[in-house]
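Following up on my earlier thread - several people asked me to post the actual chain instead of describing it. Fair enough. Here it is, all 283 residues.
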Amino acid sequence: MKFMSEEKEMSFLDHLEELRWHVVRSVAAIFLMMILAFIYTKEIFQYIIFAPGRVDFITFRWLCELGAATGVDGLCVTDIPMKIQSRFLMGQFTMQLTASFVIGLVVAFPYVVWELWSFVKPGLYNKEKQSSRGAVFSISILFLIGISFGYFVLSPMTIAFLANYTISDMISNEFDITSYVSTITILVLSSGLLFQLPIVIFFLTKVGIVTPQLLRTYRKHAVVAILVIGAVITPSSDPLSLSLISIPLYFLYEISIFVSRIEVKRKEKREQEEEKLDQQSSI
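Reply from S.P.:
Thanks for posting it. Predicted structure:
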């Protein structure tokens, strides 16, 4: 008996159908995490969202310990004079939905990346699959590091600066809940996305758009762009907050140059191996 196997190519509509199910599962995962976050809203606001606005936050405690160990005055944050209020009828409910969605997105992010990668992966060659192994893990780890940086570093520093900033003793800082949650959301999510820079550079190098030489040539331009991005992300735009976001971004840019150089060497090595195979086959 003779068995025959035929590979059936997927049509454009089949690809759309496949993509639709990946998107549906991703949205379902985000929605499920969003529901769980919505159920535990009080705990989330008390121990996560409002935490960077209290002096007992872990970052402020570490700064106090660092100041005591090094003898540097001014590192310890002893007061954050602000009040959170809701001045709109739908303010608290809207922020509850927003916070639940953001937390659902953050928690489900690795699964969403895995779903998208599962859609893209079958269309790659074997060599491309091998060279892209660990992509989901790398993206998820960098996103987690960026989220942690935005939450534990940028958010408390920005809140402490803005809460203590005043132009007159007659003015008290009473922030609206929408402004407070939006600021933390922007800082945290922006950091998570910006920390994907090495991954972006890796794939741009892979397709031949970016080279290490190009990145080195435009290093000065990148520094200016990083400062602009830092000023846009940090609402306070004070020198400390600007430095906190700009310095890590610059290190990420340098890491991206290193990643690009490694990928270029790998491409050159593969091309040399292919040339040897062509020469051997022609003999």
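The mean pLDDT is 86. That should answer part of your original question.
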